[in-house]
């Protein structure tokens, strides 16, 4: 294992517990020296290079596909068309959606129609990437353009062109979430705040490494070897296996290092299916490394959500009684992992707040745009953003202090475990304390003073924003049944092996697909604690490999769960291994097991270090010297211990849409101070603070790194990044030339604070984290709202370009409709 | 890389480069390659022969003449401009703006000549060179000609260069006593794509004696705003008068629209950056 040499001195010291220490990451030596194994570094003998032929139209009938010129080009091995792919498949990909959505037909490549700009119609395999690209240009596709719909609301509420004729509608899913009695609350509240429309925009996390795979459909064995950076391989196998007519045990998925994923790498299973068929047709492995513009056009985007007719009942003292809204989620042209987004948001139905009455009418809409799939904070950050906008708008309209209003409505420390109206259980936390810490770290008092001193005429305004958010982790897949009652899913789990190898080496295998979260390090830390040895001496195998059998149906890395499911599995497997080592040690040392302990790679009798056996001796007895052992021991113990961690979940109540949908709730409270240039709308961040509470931190520095990353993505989303389509369905930001990703120069210094409220539900007190709940998006919008001031306009969009900020400043001075109204009952004092 | 196969030649002198360029129709000069390589990767232009001029010593010099004018070779990189004592001494604004072009890797390779010859309306240096009244020195097999920067930029990716011609250097006159230059960009983020920008050069002697105001990203090429210049000439260099002059930027400019800003917003912001650039130029002149 290539641990950094600098770490050795630090980590050789004896410590009480390795968990909780910021030990240097074991994987960094490899990664910072360019020695990682990313997807483009991998290859197979005889492989060809794949290039997809993609539609320039957002919606068109495929009249004909002529591959003859491409096939004739020297160096081309094969060209696969959509029609051929369909003929090679047994059935279309299975759909999560019920009803109309279930009738959507998706094949590995587009058949008959293309439904978004970038939809793949054919794929070429050639002796080099350049030849493949040249050949792809020679594939002649005749299109007959069709009318296009690029707006989710329009797609489902007006006479819009239908994308999938077999579904007969653009509504991929619709359902009503109704808890408490919102209409009663609206009737009896002192005030009702009505907001016409809030819009959460489309963007993505654009990982440094695009998608890629090397796929080999081996003719002899029938095994499909898939080396890829897909982050949820078993889900891919589940979707494409039946379609290709292949059993799960005929897939061999594996991954090594992954250069960022953020959920974006869950949804590219159609490409893997197409590559498998291409490999089968060509009789050789197919390697595909996605091009950046290809990634931006056709990989995946985050969910774009429009909230309409929002109504918020508020009491005179500021108590918020609930929220009523319609939500239309634009999920793009096909359902990749969707419509799970139509339920996943309800993990954070009420966000950080205690209100009991909620009614949300939710629709997943198909549009002629890139399909969406999970993106850091998947489906929850849209809801959390809406709720934070609601809080700030209520404060703004009814003249409450945004801090006091939050504190009044927060779930309080004494409420945990707190059950939400839809049956989710918030495990632990201290939101008021987190907020106080964030305000103090940001020195908000001083900024408030400077804000009031600034006055008019300076051309500058200061705004102070708060983003309170939850990072719900460890899904209960039973929530899928709320979307489709026929889905046989519930619970969650992860598997790990802990093995003592032949010469006494400790090795950990886990079924996750790490993308920079430091799984090698934190796995070694928790294993080292159990075996009472240094994490430097624990090897954690890189990446995911079906062949290791350390996988279960939900294996992968997504949805903020590794610290719970992954480490839960590692801890369980290591505890089993510890027990086996002690049993063999008891035999070898002729001492009762209870009198033994492990220390630094040896088993010894407590209080008598002269009686000890090193791990190599223990391993020798099992692997290469087992006639020494009584058969009772050798038949039972193999020093290769598998453990599956299963979180404590129940199947949700589908009818009432009730259940504990996630196991843990980390919280993030962010505070920022911005300065707005009134003449231009340019926003400068003067101060940024993030306070994180993710329970017990296994490696605080890794947590901090994740917090920084989430802040950067959120700030960039709020100010710079957006995927926008014109009326013809052409993506306006198909490269980094147009799509500005926040760089180190754009992201301010981030001050961090933390609170540890251990989770009572997890094996180690930790909670999943890393998504950050989109907190920075909420926080920037909140700061802009504050800068707009009393009587100012409403921040209605999650994306605020300089022009939009400028317009908000302008409309604050005019008498244009503000999109918000307050209705107060008599006697209700604002 | 995903280039189509292309021929490549590395001439030993400018004369040889000109010979090759004039005798090969599909030839294009390659300097830093920071734009051309991308264009080729995207396959939006086809070139049969790349003539690599990046290492030609004749194109890589910076000279300050006795009168204070500056001559910068076409293949001098942004980073070299930024760190040149000659540039910093008399034309600090050129060094400063070169230090903000994209990232360090690009600044190590990209050249002033490439920045101009691409004539991309988002490029940093063209509006500045027009404001500074630079002259583009152009050579062909037949001889040399000089074109004012103002007349060099002809349209999107289009310049006054004729086939077979090569931009060899750029001459920038000295900034006179009482004079200063200003450059203000409104960008999407730090050192990123610009939404609108302005460059200005002024000379003040009690009143504004000389002034050039150049707007970029409001048209396919940098444009001087003559009405604003006219309004400034002969008036006192006060914030109020500069503001009033900038208000003359109106429907005479019709900027493009994209995801980072509408046409109307760009026009309004052109007034802001033009005003700020002129004020910065006045301030710099006053400091000398």
Protein chains sharing the most extensive interface: A-B, 26 and 22 residues
Structural class designation of chain B: alpha+beta
How many strand elements of chain B?
Answer: 14
Q: Which strands sit side by side, in order, in the main sheet of chain A?
A: 3-5-1-12-9-10-11
Please work out how many helical segments of chain B DSSP would assign.
Answer: 12
The rough form of chain A would be described as globular
CATH class of the domain at 493-645 in chain A: Alpha Beta
Mean pLDDT across all residues of chain A, rounded?
95
- Protein structure class of chain A: alpha+beta
- The name CATH uses for the topology of the domain at 493-645 in chain A is Aldehyde Oxidoreductase, domain 4
Tell me the β content of chain B: 25-35%
Widest beta sheet: strand line-up of chain B:
4-5-10-6-7
| Termini gap of chain A | 64 Å
Give start-end ranges of low-pLDDT stretches of chain B: none
- The CATH architecture category of the largest domain in chain B equals 2-Layer Sandwich
Order of helices and strands of chain B: EHEHEEEHHHHHHEEHEEEEEEEHHH
Oligomer: heterodimer
User: Largest sheet of chain A, if any?
Assistant: 7 strands, mixed
Mean pLDDT of chain B: 94
| CATH-assigned fold name of the largest domain in chain B | Uridine Diphospho-n-acetylenolpyruvylglucosamine Reductase, domain 3
Please work out how many helical segments of chain A DSSP would assign. Answer: 24
Description of the structure:
- With 830 residues, chain A is α+β, with helices and mostly antiparallel strands.
- Chain A has a domain at 493-645: Aldehyde Oxidoreductase, domain 4, CATH 3.30.365.10.
- In chain A, strands 3-5-1-12-9-10-11 form a seven-stranded mixed β-sheet, sandwiched between helices. A six-stranded mixed β-sheet of chain A has the order 7-15-14-13-8-29.
- The longest helix of chain A has 28 residues, at 562-589.
- The radius of gyration of chain A is 28 Å and the shape is globular.
- Chain B has three domains: 7-52, Uridine Diphospho-n-acetylenolpyruvylglucosamine Reductase, domain 2 (2-Layer Sandwich), CATH 3.30.43.10; 57-172, Uridine Diphospho-n-acetylenolpyruvylglucosamine Reductase, domain 3; 179-287, CO dehydrogenase flavoprotein, C-terminal domain (Enolase-like, domain 1, 2-Layer Sandwich).
- Chain B is built from twelve helices and 14 strands.
- Chain B has helices at 14-23, 36-41, 78-83, 85-90, 92-98, 104-109, 112-118, 125-131, 149-152, 226-232, 239-246, 263-287, and strands spanning 7-9, 27-30, 49-52, 62-64, 70-73, 135-140, 143-148, 153-155, 158-159, 166-172, 179-187, 194-205, 207-216, 223-224.
- In chain B, the strands form four sheets. Chain B has a five-stranded antiparallel β-sheet with strand order 4-5-10-6-7. Chain B has a four-stranded antiparallel β-sheet with strand order 11-12-13-14, with helices on both faces. Chain B has a three-stranded parallel β-sheet with strand order 1-3-2, covered by helices on one side.
- The longest helix of chain B is centred in the last third of the chain and has 25 residues, at 263-287.
- At the A-B interface, helix 6 and helix 24 of A face helix 12 of B.
């Amino acid at each position: 294992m290539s641990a950094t040499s600098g770490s050795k001195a630090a980590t050789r010291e004896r410590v009480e517990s390795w968990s909780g220490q910021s030990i240097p990451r074991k994987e960094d030596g490899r990664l910072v020296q360019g020695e990682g194994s990313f997807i483009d570094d991998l290859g197979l003998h005889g492989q060809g290079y794949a290039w997809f032929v993609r539609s320039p139209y957002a919606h068109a009938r495929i009249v004909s596909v002529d591959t003859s010129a491409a096939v004739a080009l020297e160096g081309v091995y094969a060209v696969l068309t959509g029609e051929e792919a369909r003929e090679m498949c047994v059935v279309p990909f299975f759909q999560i959606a019920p009803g109309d959505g279930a009738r959507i037909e998706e094949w590995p490549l587009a058949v008959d129609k293309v439904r978004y700009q970038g939809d793949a119609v054919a794929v070429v395999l050639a002796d080099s990437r350049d030849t493949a690209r040249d050949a792809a240009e020679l594939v002649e596709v005749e299109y007959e353009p069709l009318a296009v719909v690029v707006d989710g609301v329009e797609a489902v509420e007006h006479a819009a062109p239908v994308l999938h004729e077999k579904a007969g509608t653009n509504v991929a899913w619709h359902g009503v979430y109704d808890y408490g009695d919102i209409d009663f609350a609206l009737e009896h509240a002192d005030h009702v705040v009505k907001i016409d429309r809030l819009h959460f925009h489309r963007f993505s996390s654009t990982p440094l490494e695009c998608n890629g795979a090397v796929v080999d459909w081996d003719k002899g064995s029938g095994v499909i070897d898939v080396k890829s950076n897909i982050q949820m391989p078993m889900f891919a196998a589940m979707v494409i296996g039946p379609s290709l007519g292949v059993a799960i045990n005929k897939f061999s998925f594996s991954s090594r290092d992954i250069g960022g994923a953020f959920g974006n790498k869950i949804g590219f299973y159609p490409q893997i299916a197409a590559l498998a068929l291409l490999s089968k047709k060509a009789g050789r492995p197919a390697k595909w490394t996605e091009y950046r513009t290809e990634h931006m056009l056709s990989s995946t985007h985050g969910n774009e959500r429009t909230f309409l007719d929002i109504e918020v009942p508020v009491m005179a003292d500021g108590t918020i009684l609930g929220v009523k809204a319609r939500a239309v989620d634009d999920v793009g042209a096909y359902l990749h992992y969707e419509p799970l987004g139509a339920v996943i948001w309800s993990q954070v139905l009420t966000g950080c707040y205690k209100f009991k009455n909620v009614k949300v009418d939710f629709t997943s809409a198909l549009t002629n745009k890139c399909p969406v799939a999970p993106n850091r904070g998947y489906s929850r950050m849209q809801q959390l953003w809406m709720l934070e906008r609601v809080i700030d708008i209520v404060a703004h309209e009814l003249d409450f202090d945004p801090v006091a209003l939050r504190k009044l409505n927060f779930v309080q420390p004494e409420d945990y475990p707190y059950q939400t109206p839809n049956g989710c259980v918030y495990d632990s936390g201290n939101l008021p304390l987190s907020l106080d810490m964030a305000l103090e770290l940001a020195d908000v008092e001083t900024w408030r003073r400077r804000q009031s001193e600034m006055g008019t005429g300076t051309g500058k305004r200061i705004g102070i924003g708060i983003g309170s958010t939850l990072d719900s982790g460890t899904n209960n897949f039973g929530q899928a049944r709320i979307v489709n009652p026929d889905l046989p899913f519930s619970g969650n789990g992860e598997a790990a092996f802990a093995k003592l190898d032949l010469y006494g080496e400790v090795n950990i295998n886990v079924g996750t697909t790490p993308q920079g979260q430091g799984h090698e390090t934190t796995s070694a830390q928790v294993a080292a604690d159990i075996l009472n040895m240094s994490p430097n001496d624990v090897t954690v195998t890189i990446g995911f490999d079906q062949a290791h059998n350390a996988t279960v149906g939900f294996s992968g890395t997504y949805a903020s769960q590794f610290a719970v499911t992954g480490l839960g599995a590692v801890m369980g497997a290591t505890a089993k291994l510890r027990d086996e080592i002690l049993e063999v040690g008891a035999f070898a040392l002729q001492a009762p097991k209870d009198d033994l302990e492990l220390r630094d790679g040896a088993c010894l009798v407590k209080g008598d270090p002269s009686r000890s056996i090193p791990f190599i001796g223990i391993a020798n007895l099992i692997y290469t010297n087992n006639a020494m052992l009584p058969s009772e021991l050798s038949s039972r113990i193999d020093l290769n211990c598998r453990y599956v961690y299963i979180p404590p979940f129940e199947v949700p109540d589908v009818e009432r849409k009730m259940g504990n949908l996630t196991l843990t709730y980390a919280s993030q409270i962010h505070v920022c101070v911005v300065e707005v240039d009134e003449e231009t709308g340019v926003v400068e961040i003067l101060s940024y603070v993030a306070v994180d509470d993710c329970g017990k931190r296994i490696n605080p520095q890794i947590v901090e790194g994740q917090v920084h990353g989430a802040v950067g993505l959120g700030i960039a989303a709020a100010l710079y990044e957006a995927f926008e389509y014109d009326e013809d369905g052409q993506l306006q930001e198909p490269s980094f030339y147009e799509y500005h990703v926040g760089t180190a120069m754009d992201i301010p210094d981030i001050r961090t604070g933390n609170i540890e409220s251990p989770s009572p539900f997890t094996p180690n007190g930790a909670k999943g984290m890393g998504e950050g709940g989109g907190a920075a998006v909420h926080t920037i919008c909140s700061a802009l709202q504050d800068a707009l001031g009393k009587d100012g306009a409403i921040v209605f969009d999650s994306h605020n370009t300089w022009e939009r900020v400028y317009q908000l400043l302008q409309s604050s001075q005019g008498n244009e409709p503000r999109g918000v109204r307050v209705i107060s009952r008599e006697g209700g004092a604002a | 890389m995903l280039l189509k196969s292309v021929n490549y030649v590395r001439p030993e002198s400018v004369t040889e480069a000109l010979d090759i360029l004039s005798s090969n129709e599909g030839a294009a000069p390659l300097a830093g390659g920071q734009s051309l390589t991308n264009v080729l990767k995207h396959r939006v232009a086809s070139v049969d022969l790349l003539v690599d001029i990046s290492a030609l010593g004749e194109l890589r010099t910076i000279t300050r003449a006795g009168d204070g004018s500056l001559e910068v070779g076409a293949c001098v990189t942004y980073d070299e401009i930024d760190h040149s004592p000659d540039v910093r001494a008399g034309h600090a604004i050129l060094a400063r703006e070169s230090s903000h072009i994209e990232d360090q890797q690009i600044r190590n390779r990209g050249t002033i000549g490439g920045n101009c010859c691409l004539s991309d309306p988002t490029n940093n240096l063209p509006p500045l060179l027009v404001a500074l009244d630079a002259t583009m020195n152009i050579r062909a097999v037949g001889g040399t000609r000089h074109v004012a920067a103002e007349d060099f930029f002809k349209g999107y990716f289009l310049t006054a260069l004729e086939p077979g011609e090569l931009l060899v250097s750029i001459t920038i006159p000295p900034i006179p006593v009482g004079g200063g230059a200003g450059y203000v960009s409104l960008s999407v983020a730090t050192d990123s794509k610009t939404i609108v920008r302005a460059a200005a050069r002024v000379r003040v002697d009690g009143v504004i004696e000389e002034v050039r105001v150049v707007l970029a990203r409001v048209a396919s090429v940098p444009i001087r705003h003559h009405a604003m210049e006219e309004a400034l000439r002969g008036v006192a260099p006060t914030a109020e008068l500069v503001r009033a002059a900038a208000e003359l930027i109106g429907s005479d400019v019709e900027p493009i629209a994209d995801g980072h800003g509408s046409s109307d917003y760009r026009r309004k912001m052109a007034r802001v950056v033009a005003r700020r650039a002129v004020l910065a130029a006045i301030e710099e002149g006053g400091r000398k």
